[in-house]
Amino acid sequence: MSTYLPTLKQLQYLVALEEQGHFGKAADACYVTQSTLSAGIRELESLLGLVLVERTRRVVRFTPLGKKMVAKAHRILREAEELADMARAAGKPLADELRMSVIPTIAPFLLPRLLPALRKKYPDLKLYLREETSAAACEALHRGQVDCVLLALPYGCGDTEHAKLFDDRLFVAFPKGEPDNPPSTIVPEMIDESRLLLLVDGHCLKDHALAACNRPELRASATMLGTSLHTLIQMVDNGLGQTLVPEIAVKNGLLNGTEVEARPLDAPHASREIALVWRTNSPRQPEFELLAETMRELVPA
């Protein structure tokens, strides 16, 4: 057996440095001084007899072995947290800290209605939220930076389990009068590929919209420049094109103050599944299932 084992604190310092790319910022993230963090990493290198980080005045660069150590450190820290999660789950459910990522096409439309009711039902729950794209949220989940993700499926999020909350239909949004007398629903063939505006890469809604339309030429011709649904709607309101938006956004005021109209998309699979997602075999699975059940009860139909 090795005479020396890295401490969790040293591994936390190493992971923080890799994430921040700067000693000062990593120290702030760990709530220690820069000298403490730097000394901790040097001690780790000294006792392992390895160089993990190349230090220069302008950049922090990890050696190939250092990168491997960081990947392993993420797993060790996540499993250490799961030890605490096991004890937490044995006590009163939803009565402690919970870190959740929420994607931008859900957060501003669902959370204002959900959080007050959730806080009232579980006053001891300390819910910490991160708003980030689907890819970033899933990476944070597997790195142990968050406990669960409020996500739109289908989306490849790795080795996870989920509980469905509700289906969210897709709508086509267009400037008022374009077309004249619009029908009650819009079929994909009515969408002008040269005027289709979509979110930039990293947002799963873009892929859901293109998959629902099932028109390969849309993927090739669509302009992908929106960084948020609100930005897209402003462009549509100014006559720059059409876009696709989720029902949850339409029903929660996305079009307020504009002359944009929206109609449901009439196509197979023209919806996304809103779900709570967590790591497979998480010891807090009963809590997540309870949280999902509570969300289903609290979210207005």
TrEMBL record:
Judging by the UniProt lineage, the source's domain of life is Bacteria
Cite the entry's keywords alphabetically: DNA-binding, Transcription, Transcription regulation
Q: Where is the HTH lysR-type domain?
A: 6-63
Source taxonomy lineage? Bacteria, Pseudomonadati, Pseudomonadota, Alphaproteobacteria, Sphingomonadales
Molecular function in Gene Ontology: DNA binding; DNA-binding transcription factor activity
Q: Name a single GO cellular component.
A: protein-DNA complex
Q: Give the similarity note.
A: Belongs to the LysR transcriptional regulatory family.
Against CDD domains, the record matches this protein to: PBP2_OxyR (cd08411)
Q: Is the keyword DNA-binding assigned to this protein?
A: yes
State what protein this is by name.
Hydrogen peroxide-inducible genes activator
